[in-house]
Design goal:
Radius of gyration: 18 Å
Order of helices and strands: HEEEEEEEEEEEEEEEEEEEEEH
Mean pLDDT: 87
Largest sheet: 5 strands, antiparallel
Helix content: under 10%
Distance between the termini: 27 Å
Oligomer: single chain
Structural class: mainly beta
Shape: globular
Strand content: 35-45%
Low-confidence stretches: 1-35
């Protein structure tokens, strides 16, 4: 990734709207409530990424972004927008064996123009997300609390995290929060202190954005400009593994079976630890395809250095 603010702002702005605009895709039947199984009944991928739920989650004419499932895998939340419209969070739930029709969440009820990057907490009691009115102006972390059959009013996180422009919050199994600091162009984390986040610190990596921490914090995924070919400017997915001394390895490219000549972005790990979900923008500056893909996390495990 080029080390200039201009280039960084350009690709982060693209990353902000993690697109998925699929063409010629049809759902498995005509009902908008499709699946009777986890992951919308999709066939699990192996080491080659597959489009996730084409015609159901990834649909024609809409740009989908970062995905989050509830820990029990019975709820999905994802950011999406239509051309010329604001980004919003959409959701579906698995009820009585069937996924409900996908609907807009509208957590802030108009307090903020856009909502994105949802993350369901490890105890399923909260959804953290990014809310904003204008790009690179007021991005903050917000959350809603789970009520019996709904969600509370949206609350801006009361934490030093929000002293800067920030987005893409996610948590490890112990509740430690990881996020990207737009003001400083670095990945940070805040230790969980009984649900409070009074401290924040850099995690110690210098490359990549939209970081997503593994449940046990033994590795972190990032998206960043391809480092293997100086002639390429697209974003790929990389993994850092944590060393025994608490520092991180150098970023390791997930390989050409996962990454392509297009932009890969917003990597997320499913709650069961089995799959990576990510966006792949295939539009190359023109209106075209952009999809959500998923692939087995075995591609990560195969890259782990033997001395760790």
């Amino acid at each position: 990734m080029r080390n200039t603010n201009f280039i960084y702002l350009m690709f982060v702005s693209v990353m902000f709207f993690n697109a998925c605009d699929t063409k010629n895709q049809k759902p498995k039947n005509n009902d908008s409530s499709i699946s009777k199984e986890f992951y919308f009944g999709q066939k699990p991928p192996n080491l080659i990424p597959e489009i996730f739920a084409p015609g159901i989650v990834s649909i024609n004419g809409r740009f989908e972004g970062a995905v989050s499932f509830s820990p029990d895998l019975r709820e999905i939340y994802f950011g999406a927008y239509y051309e010329g419209k604001e980004t919003a969070i959409y959701y579906s739930k698995l009820e009585k064996g069937t996924w409900t029709t996908i609907k807009r969440a509208n957590f802030t009820k108009g307090q903020k123009k856009e909502e994105m990057h949802p993350f369901v907490s490890q105890n399923s009691k909260r959804i953290y997300f990014t809310a904003l009115d204008s790009v690179f102006a007021d991005e903050k972390i917000w959350y809603v609390n789970r009520l019996q059959d709904s969600w509370s009013a949206a609350i801006q996180l009361n934490s030093p995290i929000n002293d800067d422009l920030v987005f893409s919050a996610n948590q490890a199994k112990n509740g430690d929060m990881y996020y990207f600091n737009l003001s400083k162009f670095k990945t940070y984390y805040a230790p969980n202190e009984n649900g409070e986040f009074s401290e924040k610190m850099e995690i110690g990596i210098t490359f990549g954005h939209h970081a997503f921490i593994s449940p046990s914090q033994d590795y972190v995924l990032v998206a960043g400009e391809n480092q293997e070919n100086n002639h390429r400017k697209d974003n790929d997915i990389y993994v850092y593994f944590k060393k025994q001394d608490g520092t991180w390895t150098k970023p390791i490219h997930l390989g050409n079976s996962v990454n392509s000549d297009f932009d890969e972005k917003s990597p997320r790990i499913s709650p069961d630890g089995k799959y990576i979900f990510f966006g792949r923008s295939e539009r190359k500056g023109e209106k075209g395809l952009a999809n959500i893909y998923w692939v087995s996390t075995e591609v990560i495990h195969k890259l782990k250095p033997t001395n760790l």
